[in-house]
Amino acid sequence: MPSFRALFGESLDAISQLLSPLSQSNCETVVHPDLQEDVITTLLNLSIHDNNKKLVAETPTVIPLLMDALKTGTIETRSNAAATLFTLSALDSNKALIGKSGALKPLIDLLDEGHPLAMKDVASAIFNLCIIHENKVRAVRDGAVRVILKKIMNRLHVDELLSILAMLSTNQKAIEEMGELEAVPCLLSIIRETSCDRNKENCIAILYTICFSDRSKWKVMREEESMYRTISQLAQNGTSRAKRKASGILERLNRAVNLTHTA
């Protein structure tokens, strides 16, 4: 099978020819769902071959047709379109190209819909794309924070979505939005509930950034600390990164209390 994938990539116009039924259908008539699914699935299989990733992404019709499939296909087609974008986004040059083409918005919309079949592929694609700074900005602008937080609050795909949220938390607008959407109590409750070290680490990393950016959230953190000692416990028992972040929050909160008392 890999040799067939490689052979496809050696022909300059093979990808365009593969997509031509969809391109023609788009212009003249409605795309047949089975045809769309077969073509997108074939594209996914071809994209798995490393030598094909650049060629596939840079074929002008590919990303627009994947975006169209994300919006209009069967759930299998939409899931495979997301998986194709994930596979292509292994290359940094493709991350930039996919982001510039506007593919984050339909991915975020599909995440918002929350179909179980598509969630993992969509989350993986968004995560990979947001590794580069300009795509973080685009994802925040396209509503990723609200959609991701809503899913996390409903305890859906928490592991994958917390990883994306932690990545987006380097963006100031994302942090402001998290504050408005009551992310702090939600993240603290996950630290209390979960046994997953990675989830605790992602939660405390986000809380650390919020703590140092938005003093209006200190009160909630102090109340949590006084009631459950959530942050203190993580400072003692977490991973080395979680301990560092938790200790940083506690120092900041204690310093603020001391300054208030001495003022």
TrEMBL record:
The keyword Ribosomal protein does not apply. The lineage of its organism: Eukaryota, Viridiplantae, Streptophyta, Embryophyta, Tracheophyta. SMART domains: ARM (SM00185). It comes from Sesamum calycinum. The keyword Cell membrane does not apply. Keywords: Repeat, Ubl conjugation pathway. Gene3D superfamilies: Leucine-rich Repeat Variant. It comes from the Eukaryota. This is U-box domain-containing protein 9. InterPro entries: ARM-like (IPR011989), ARM-type_fold (IPR016024), Armadillo (IPR000225).
